[in-house]
Write a structure and sequence with these properties.
By secondary structure, the chain is of the alpha/beta class. It has two domains: 35 residues; 204 residues, Spore Coat Polysaccharide Biosynthesis Protein SpsA, Chain A (Alpha-Beta Complex), CATH 3.90.550. It contains eight helices and ten strands. An eight-stranded mixed sheet has the order 2-1-3-8-5-9-7-6, sandwiched between helices. Helix 4 packs antiparallel against helix 6. 31% of the residues are buried. Pfam families: Glyco_transf_25 (PF01755).
Length: 264
């Protein structure tokens, strides 16, 4: 049956529309695939942990994500609990601080932020979590950082609760070696700019690292370690350091970078 000439423009237009739709579908599919591959590459850290968070002040968020992007890590952002929003009466009622606490508002807000992230991690059902603070700097490139973590994960201590990959002021001379030369038992590590925690460790910290009276959060955790209540390990060398010279300190800790070990 012959097609009338009056129908030809409509048929041509219909074919054109079909071709355009097919082209857009192919382009969208390809771009989506490219984006998925890129995301997997950027988040290689999830080969080792189930969750990764960065506790970030608004003014530091962009810069610290760029820093972590240098080693291909893209964590979820947890907005830092700002000291200007602290309600001490409420925190006393929650059992987070004690009346008459001498801990500064900045240190209270810092510790509260970490506790919020630990609670979010537990609520997610994940088994392991990596937590960053927003004043860090990377020590190695992506390949070396990933290789080090692969070596750590090949032989983790069975009893670990927390593994710091960015400690400071630890009693390194008293550190106990493990079967893995990349991991040591950290006797009194402080600083929380980069650490990995499992569910048992998170529950212990949430239950025992409060209420705050005189000590900041990392000192409270270090005391739990010293008392044998928290199994705390660290990488034999830091993978991440604090960059105080660039970011300063919101906790009035000075502008100098923190040493990995306590000077002997």
């Amino acid at each position: 049956m012959a097609i009338g000439r009056e129908y030809i423009p409509g048929i041509a237009l219909g074919l054109f529309v079909v071709i355009v739709i097919c082209y857009m579908f192919i382009v969208t599919t390809v771009k989506g695939s490219e984006k998925q591959v890129f995301t997997q590459q950027e988040n290689w850290i999830y080969d080792f942990v189930d969750k990764a968070y960065i506790i970030a002040l608004p003014q530091r968020r962009k810069s610290v994500l760029k820093i972590l992007g240098q080693v291909g890590i893209e964590p979820a952002v947890h907005p830092a609990y700002l000291k200007k929003y602290i309600d001490k009466r409420k925190l006393i009622d929650e059992g987070f601080i004690l009346p008459g606490t001498t801990v500064t508002d900045a240190r209270i807000s810092c510790h509260y932020s970490h506790m919020q992230v630990l609670q979010a991690f537990l609520s997610s059902g994940a088994k392991t979590c990596l937590i960053f603070e927003d004043d860090l700097q990377v020590k190695f490139d992506q390949a070396k950082t990933k290789k080090y973590l692969q070596g750590m994960w090949a032989d983790l201590p069975e009893t670990w609760d927390v593994i710091s990959i960015g400690k400071c002021y630890d009693s390194c001379s008293s550190a106990n070696s493990t079967s893995n030369p990349l991991i040591v038992k950290a006797p009194y590590a402080r600083c929380r700019h980069a650490y990995i925690v499992n569910r048992i460790g998170a529950k212990k910290i949430l239950n025992m690292a409060k209420p705050m009276l005189h000590l900041p959060g990392d000192e409270m955790i270090a005391n739990l370690v010293r008392q044998g209540k928290l199994q705390y390990y660290s990488s034999a060398t830091n993978l991440f350091d604090q960059d105080r010279q660039k970011f300063g300190s919101t906790l009035n800790n000075g502008d100098g970078n923190m040493p990995e070990c306590t000077p002997q």
